[in-house]
Design goal:
With 49 residues, the chain is of the alpha+beta class. It has one domain. It contains one helix and three strands, in the order E-E-E-H. Strand 1 and strand 2 form a beta hairpin. It is globular.
Length: 49
């Protein structure tokens, strides 16, 4: 089974969302403003199951 991992580095003004493979290869990085709407939209942009 292929798995990807999502990590969120949250700060007061911005968040960075990273998507990694099991072998720690970076697939995607998203920088967003720290607020509920942008965090939800950023996560929803990630494709997969």
């Amino acid at each position: 089974m292929k798995r990807n991992w999502i990590g969120i580095d949250a700060h007061k003004g911005y968040c960075e969302i990273a998507v990694l493979t099991d072998k720690e290869t970076l697939i995607r990085r998203i920088n967003i403003i720290t607020n509920e709407r942008d965090i939800v939209e950023g996560i929803l942009k990630i494709k997969g199951e």
